[in-house]
Amino acid sequence: MSLCERMCEVLSQSKSEDLCLRDVSLPVWHLVRPSVWTSRRRERTESVTALNIELLSQVLTSTSPVFIVHQEPPDDYEVPGDWQRTGDSTWRVSADLDLTDPVSKNWLLGIGNWCLYSAPAPVVGICPDAFRMSASELLSWMRENSVAVLIDSFHDDSDWVVALGVV
């Protein structure tokens, strides 16, 4: 099973009030962390966090390289691993990135404002703002740049856009 198929299966099995397709005919999801005033906030937040970690885990098992565009360098936060800079704010994700490590977890799930993607090579130029473009525009950009999977995290990690290039 391909990475996109595994990701699609995880997302499809994770039906919740906090996860929805942005366009019912396209594989682009919007995942929202419940607000302070949301009913059953703790339970829903735990569910969203578990899904975040599962999605990241799936991408990290990709046989294709994984890259992250993050304004906060992993070195500044002392994120463990072998981080290779591939662009201005882009790094090839360390193969041994441990999502249970508190520093790694905070860098990804606490700060937000990053874009993680699986592709044969780092994208040249700027990654799109997945929150401001349509699902079809995002998927078109992904095809043009050979991006199989993209996860875009909003500031403070409050929302994610998850897009699958090939299902």
Structure overview:
This protein is of the alpha+beta class and 167 residues long. The protein has one domain (3-164). Helix content is 29%, strand content 23%. It contains 4 helices and 8 strands. It has helices at residues 3-12, 41-60, 102-109, 135-144, and strands at 19-21, 28-32, 66-70, 84-85, 90-92, 112-118, 149-155, 159-164. The chain has an 8-stranded antiparallel beta sheet with strand order 1-2-8-7-6-3-5-4, with helices on both faces. A hairpin with a 4-residue loop joins strand 4 and strand 5 (90-92). Helix 1 runs antiparallel to helix 2. The longest helix has 20 residues, at 41-60. It is globular. The mean pLDDT is 92.
Summarize the structure.
The chain has 167 residues and is an alpha+beta fold. 29% of the residues lie in helices and 23% in strands.
Low-confidence stretches: none
Could you give a short account of the major beta sheet? 8 strands, antiparallel
Question: How many helical stretches?
Answer: 4
Helix content: 25-40%
Order of neighbouring strands in the sheet with most strands: 1-2-8-7-6-3-5-4
Query: From the alpha-carbon coordinates, what is the Rg to the nearest angstrom?
Result: 15 Å
N-to-C series of helices and strands: HEEHEEEHEHEE
Report strand %.
Answer: 15-25%
What number is the mean pLDDT?
Answer: 92
Number of distinct beta strands: 8
Number of domains: 1
Give the distance, in angstroms, between the N- and C-terminal Cα atoms. 10 Å
Classify the secondary structure makeup into a structural class: alpha+beta
Sum up the overall morphology in one term: globular
